[in-house]
Specification:
Oligomer: heterodimer
Shape of chain B: globular
Largest interface: A-B, 27 and 27 residues
Bound molecules: adenosine-5'-triphosphate, iron/sulfur cluster, magnesium ion
Number of helices of chain B: 17
Number of strands of chain A: 5
Strand content of chain B: 5-15%
Number of domains of chain B: 3
Radius of gyration of chain B: 24 Å
Helix content of chain A: 25-40%
Structural class of chain A: alpha+beta
Order of helices and strands of chain A: EHHEEHHHEE
Largest sheet of chain B: 4 strands, parallel
Chain lengths: ~140, ~450
């Protein structure tokens, strides 16, 4: 059977704007709640997308984009930026590894848990990154 | 579908359809139908804001009337700490307890003792369940319902312990029935309540169990009777011992941050007021709130001291409670073996499981829900988004949602149908014909 896209929406992420960070998460959460997606899945999607949004806001040094697709089979979220990229993905995926500044740590970030959290909360997780080209995280969530 | 019991009642004859309640409701639970306010039961979280804002006495709390008290044979008063700040800072809570006895209660049980067991249980729960953070205090019934309805994914964060008011009612019944040799059912425990929401936690506990309390009497309702008694008592006697032990912790439970202040906890937060709660719950839902262990949450901006059925200004009440709390021992001693036993035997816990109560989705079938969502969003684009309320919904977006899900007709919008405006003019008896011409000119 062919998979059909039911909803496709894209959201812009500003770089370095901590106040606005989380707006894409907020909108996606509203959509999922209105559609009656199970609370536990809504929570997992929220946590994962928020971590991805926050990473762009803090590290990418470029604006980014969240593409949200709902298909008849799953939820897919692609979070993309054209920023500095991650030099060592293996390291970045380790719990506790972080390049956060003291200021970011002051705000409660920089525990090095974002990427591992995205992986734990999604059903499939893929990350691609190239120095000075950018980073893309693709996550899917089963909702049925 | 479950029928939800609510602590408020709409009086149709008194309602002018002024929309004040509809505009303030944080969960969009009120509509105006045929010129009268109507409740959307599953959305209401019993916050009491509508009650406070209606100036036409068209919304009333469903507490038990003080006048019905003589019907009960053995009556126990359990005062909310919020009442203690109602009588001037020189008047001791001890006099308030005595006043309640003079009003006809057979006994008074203060929540201070229960709070000690409560704190013991919170600490054990936090140390034995480290994976889920933050844990959310579940004493305020509106907070619990807000989570069930708007943040269903957070129900697991809610502290599964019986609130101190329930615990003390249970202790009171056990103690008195043993002492007097009567059945617990013959004893009635009344909470002297700062808000209408407590009522629902008794009639329909969120966790689906049975309450140990038998009713609530609003502070508002008892205040006038109590006032003169308390003042006489304070003049005539110098009471030194309370009828039921009182602690600084117990008194401090009546205002936001009181628990935190007395227990001096790190990584605990105190949050009050519905808009603040909504913001913080959104943050928790995104996993954004890190390093916080426990959150004390209250629906009223200053905690119980500002509840919908209090009489004193919430700011004055709070500052008095802080003063008074310093005049009592901060903590009470309890039997630790008993505390341990209550916890191990699950007596300290809620007797049922708290379940989510999410709002109805646009449709239960995902394909149809998506269709309706698109219809909703397209229709919303056309609407002026003035949120005028004349359609009977609080906002254009609620209206669009109801049109899309088939509950409302497009024609209810005055911008869509001039006919609707004519109907409203008739309904509200609006008549400008007596306005003379010069006045009319001035008016414009
Ligand atoms: N979009 C991105 N662009 C550039 N670097 C990134 C990006 N996302 C993550 N990184 C790098 O990977 C590291 C690890 O990211 P991760 O989200 O796991 O932890 P963190 O953001 O440092 O801390 P936490 O997420 O717990 O607040 C970051 O410190 C940062 O150096
Ligand atoms: S506030 Fe609500 S209940 Fe009170 S008169 Fe106005 S519309 Fe009616
Ligand atoms: S009690 Fe609160 S939630 Fe319920 S209708 Fe009134 S304002 Fe809305
Ligand atoms: Mg991160």
């Amino acid at each position: 059977m062919k998979e059909t896209i039911l909803i496709s929406q894209s959201f812009h992420i500003e770089e370095g704007d901590f106040e606005k960070a989380g707006t894409a998460t907020e909108k996606i959460r509203e959509i999922l709640k209105s559609l009656g997606i199970k609370p536990d899945i809504v929570r997992r999607v929220s946590v994962a997308v928020f971590e991805a949004e926050m990473n762009i806001c803090m590290y990418a040094h470029s604006p980014g984009n969240v593409l949200f697709n709902l298909t008849d089979l799953k939820i897919e979220v692609q979070v993309t930026d054209c920023g500095v990229g991650i030099p060592d993905l293996e390291k970045a995926m380790q719990k506790g590894w972080s390049t956060a500044t003291d200021e970011m740590r002051e705000l409660g970030f920089g525990a090095g848990l974002g990427l591992p959290n995205m992986k734990e909360n999604s059903n499939t997780f893929r990350i691609e990154s190239e120095p000075d080209k950018g980073t893309r995280v693709i996550m899917t969530f089963d909702y049925l | 579908m479950t029928e939800y019991y609510h602590s408020i009642q709409f009086i149709e004859e008194s309602c002018t359809g002024c929309m004040a309640c509809m505009r303030i409701c944080p969960t969009s639970a009120i509509r105006i139908r045929r010129g009268k306010a109507a409740l959307v039961s599953e959305r209401c979280i019993d916050c009491g804001l509508c009650l406070q804002v209606c100036t036409h006495k068209a919304i009333v709390p469903k507490t038990d009337a003080f006048s019905t008290l003589p019907r009960f044979s053995y009556k126990v008063a359990i005062p909310s700490s919020a009442i203690y700040g109602h009588f001037g800072s020189e008047i001791s809570p001890i006099c308030v307890q005595e006043g309640l006895i003079q009003l006809g209660f057979n006994e008074v049980f203060d929540i201070s003792t229960a709070l000690e067991y409560y704190v013991y249980s919170i600490e054990r729960w936090l140390s034995e369940n480290r994976s889920l953070r933050p844990v959310i205090l579940s004493v305020c019934p509106t907070v619990v319902r807000l989570i069930q309805v708007l943040f269903p994914s957070l129900v697991e964060h809610v502290l599964p312990l019986q609130p101190p008011r329930e615990f003390i009612a249970m202790l009171a019944k056990v103690t008195i029935s043993e002492r007097l040799g009567v059945k617990p059912e013959e004893i009635s425990c009344f909470f002297i309540a700062p808000c209408s929401a407590i009522m629902i936690s008794i009639k329909q506990p969120a966790e689906g169990s049975r309450s140990s309390l038998d009713g609530t009497i609003g502070i508002q309702d008892i205040y006038n009777h109590l006032y003169s008694k308390v003042f006489e008592i304070s003049k005539e006697h110098t009471l030194s011992e309370p009828i039921s032990p009182i602690s600084g912790l117990g008194i401090s439970f009546g205002y936001v941050g009181g628990l935190l202040r007395i227990l001096a906890k790190e990584r605990w937060l105190a949050v009050a007021g519905l808009s603040n709660l909504i913001r913080i719950f959104q943050e928790i839902e995104s996993g954004r709130l890190r390093g916080v262990e426990f959150i004390e949450c209250w629906s009223s901006p200053l905690g119980c001291c500002g509840g919908s059925l209090t009489v004193e200004s919430s700011y004055i009440n709070r500052s008095r409670l802080i003063d008074l709390s310093n005049r009592f021992p901060q903590r009470l001693e309890i039997d630790l073996d008993a505390a341990k036993k209550y916890y191990d035997d699950k007596i300290s816990f809620l007797h049922g499981k708290l379940l989510p109560r999410p709002l109805k989705p646009l449709d239960t079938n995902i394909l149809r829900a998506v269709k309706k969502m698109k219809k909703r969003d397209e229709f919303l684009k056309l609407l002026p988004k003035f949120n005028c309320g004349l359609c009977g919904c609080p906002t254009c977006s609620t209206f669009a949602e109801e049109v899309a899900s088939g509950q409302e007709d497009k024609e209810s919008c005055v911008f869509f149908s001039p006919n609707r405006l004519r109907k409203l003019i008739n309904l509200y008896n609006i008549d400008f014909s007596s306005l003379s011409e010069d006045e009319e000119e001035e008016a414009f």
